[in-house]
Amino acid sequence: MIPQPFDYYAPATLREALAMIASGEHKILAGGMSLVPLMKLRLALPEHVVDLGRIPELNYIAESGGVLRIGAMSTHHDIESSAAVRAHCPLLAEAAGHIGDAQVRNMGTIGGSIAHADPSADYPAALLALETKIRIVSANSDRTIDAAEFFVDAFTTALEPGEIVLELQAPVEDQGEGYCYEKVPHPASGFAVVGVAVRVKKAGGKIAMARIGITGMGPRPFRDSMAEKMLESGTEIGQATQSIGQGEEANSDLYASGDYRRHLARVHAARALRTALTRAS
Amino acid sequence: MATTVSKPDLLVGKSIRRREDPRLLTGTAIYLDDIKMPGMHHACIVRSPHGAARIKSINTKPALDRPGVAAVFTGADIASLGAVPCAASLPGLRVPHHHLLAQDRVYYQGHPVAVVVATDRYLAADAADAVEVEYEPLPAVTDPEKAIAAGAPAVHPEWADNIAFTFHQEGGDTAQAFRDAEVIVKQRITSQRLIPVALETRGVVADWRPGEKSLTLFSSTQIPHLMRSLVAGILGMPENLLRVITPEVGGGFGSKLNVYAEEALMAFIAKRINKPVKWVESRRENFQATIHGRGHVDYFELAAKRDGTMLGLKLKLIADLGAYHQLLTPAIPTLSVLMMPGLYRFKNVTADIVGVFTNCVPTDAYRGAGRPEATHGIERMVDMLARELNMDPVELRLKNFVGNDEFPFPTATGLSYDSGNYAAPLKQALAQAGYPELRTEQAQARKEGRLMGIGIATYGEICALGPSAALPAGGWESATVKIEPSGKVTVMTGASPHGQGEETTFAQMAADALGVGIDDVLVVHGDTAVVQYGIGTFGSRGTAVGGAALFYALEELKAKVRKFGAMMLDTDSVTLSGGACVDEKTGKSISFAEVAAAAYHAKKLPPNTEPGLVSTHFWEPPNFTFPFGAHLVVTEVDRETGNIEIKRYIAVDDCGKIINPLLVAGQVHGGVAQGLGQALWEQAVYDDTGQLLTGELTDYAIPKAHFMPWIESSHTCTPSPVNPMGVKGVGEAGTIGCSPAVVNSVVDALAPLGVRHIDMPLTPEKIWKMIAQGGQA
Amino acid sequence: MKLTGSYTVPGPRERAYALLQDPAVLAQCMPGCEGLDRIGENEYAMRMKMTLASISGRFEGKVRISDANPPESFRLMVEGSGKIGFVKGDGLLTLSPAHGGTSVRFEGDVQVGGTIANVGQRLVETTARMLIKRFFDKLAAAASVLRATESAAD
Questions:
Q1: CB contact under 8 A, C122 and B698
Q2: Is pLDDT at A53 greater than 90 in this prediction?
């Protein structure tokens, strides 16, 4: 449980950090809740580690113009407890509260988490349901993409070498929206065997808008637009969630088979939707 | 005028807070890894990544060339040393020579192959990575039933059938019982392999003093004295030149009731490099190289009359021993056989054990050690019989319990149950639960389509291990009590507590006996140079055997103190109270300190009086003790997901007299947590090639605080006649009572679907599949 | 761990088969492969640098092709070992004509050992599937490039 020797850099500014990582040879430490355990197991053997933890300009949460902006180095605890997140994107705060344990939430960051793209991470489900955009920068580029484009495969994102996540931009949820994050945690790791994030809007006793993001079930998180459309066109929840995950690959491990995960995604989507509806006004 | 001396409140029986806790909770306790010595080196062990392989070559040069590396040792260096010891003996037992480091083959994943020693822990780890070992992987077998099937790869080439031993035990006439039976229930029941996860992993520091030719070994162990004798034997050094010290031990659960290769290796290395050396086990090593527990496949058959009278029990027990025998490996399944009759009046039992070698780390004692497996089996069988007979499982148990007037009760397995009132805890649990109302509620739930279960398990255990005849290295325990010249009291116990709280309970006993305050008593343990000798703490023996030794040592010391006190007060007899010797007739008293000073200064002793105030007692227990109890668990199964919710957990345990209720509650809670771990979450999984797939806490699910139900814990009290305090032991009770109660509850919940048995752990997917398939596994 | 799946590769079966026998193509398509050196009949020494998120490890091993039954099927055996563990995959690849090219179906057994097996259970299967998918994606790309150059040559 001892890592190999490595060089450690702690830049103080974003500019400095981006210059350091431009070559793409560096491993980025953004909280270290995934990287450090892998290094201790000697599964990750980086020679150069650049710690973004001392760059104040990456740690902020602010709302402006209907968009909630979250700096990449905001910790899960920051997000879980932020008044702005709770007011404008309560779904994200709820998902953050389900991550790991208190120590992990105090150290781990949203930028680090999504860049790692663990297929069982909690955030992606919420980010997809919230239709979040992700701003990515490098020493000589600056682009903003949809969360749906960001998550490519297990541990694989749209980040190119030299790029980092700068900011997450979530449209502020409308007043009266209902939301819910339902999670089946693995009893050992606490990772999501399946996690379902939903948002709903009611109009005239019906579902006017539904968003469903699912994590843990397959190699990458996904939004189930078919189920969303069915719900929006009046299909009852039980029936609309029956097709969730159809056509998506499902993960299997010692604890849960792919079939079971798919089943859990359906059951918990229905439960999350019911809770969200009771929260919607 | 008669003087009444007010008796101070006795401490025994009171919930005194643990005196150990402040230092543990403030981080000021000294654990093994806190030990630092000048010039201390660090060892890192290179372990086999294969379950079975031939070692073709080992190249240590790249490691030796690295900075800070002092030495690298391989199997060739230790080939002439003794083997890792197995103390258990059974007729015909095959004992593979368990070298400290692998020779030409490795037999399980984690098998130590080489040790790298460097000036710093990091450099040692880097250098260990540089050792080049060329393996030729061999076919492996990790499932005990597959291992004894024809054509299985041989774990040890010399024993093609993989059978380490067979063991037969029979009492009464089982064949006749089965001929007389009107109903026979049969079931294959597994107790899966579990991984003991002590908060503190194992660790060793060895310090060689060349001038004295002596060696001090610090080890996180449950058995310092046995370790001293056994490690001295491995190294071929005089026992009295080896000193074993256990610093604070952060849990063991049986996994530290052992002597491992690492203790002898570090001792050997310290001597070779002439420097202190430390090795601390990583969590991965804990999973791969510390003993596992359980690992049973049990075939039970229960014969009964239609009226519920249980006649006979048969058991074929296939025990997964792993690749080698550790200290007690082959003995553990024999404990299952001893306890298989449970609390019932069986006259006829037959058991056959097949001990099987597999390419896995050895199994050995883990909290309960053989008894949880037996209890799980019999309590599942009784529930199955109840279902078969359409009888309430409570009624069936009550009908077959050994009666209160039958003690001491001779069992068909050759034991003598000391004392009991087996119906009492069961009835108390039922009353507490509101059993009839629960059944009504269950009937209503079933109408609504909800899966609610009520599970009961009663258990008996064999504790206070044990009479010396039953244990390989003696089953007694020792205590020394000293009154220091200043009047302070020091207790030295051979039981080596590692979380059980004897620093508190033994101080309660000493304070009561000597009439001093608890703060005047110090309890010392875990240092072979200080403590006379001892066996250790395991098998729920700390208080029931170690406490009894203390009891008698205190009696002897009291007599000495009284003698001195009476002499000084010039009276016939005195009582000990309030830190003083009191002459009840005159009311005159003399303080302990004064008595002690007189005893040590020895200025005015009559002739033939031994100075000093010290007494030592080695106590041999005449029998085991047999605690018992009843656990009742209410569950509800989520029909959609298979998830199990524990709605109520009622534990009524009878551990005889209780010295400290707070500590007993702690033992019950911890025991239940580990029982729930087995019932619901934990499972060591090896693949067919010998890879441990649950190699870390990311996949191996131990119970966490927030998984725990509220435990409604209470007691009945049936004193044991075996020891003078009437205690029975409680360290393992929770674990033993828990798993069958939980599984019986979940099976009861699923009974409407026709489910009859489910093997542990009861993972949601397993339950979901059963529900989805209408009760078929 | 049993793995099965099928992927479509552009072009006729004969060409897909030939591509799959070509060490240069295999080296190009196997994720992280840094080179294949012929060491015998249909047998190659392999060097590989696997990078997956933060995990990285070097593997050395062998690739062997056997039971060749052109253009229908063959067995592909890949084994490698490194500090982080070892992997052995053995699979039957069956090629059949399909809409838009050739369908390659594989049916295999993957064994993983060492650290990756001990601590990576949660992700081993997902990762194995992903790597196989990457292989076929690259193979499909290679086949497309080949088809493009062929048509250019026509």
A1: yes
A2: yes
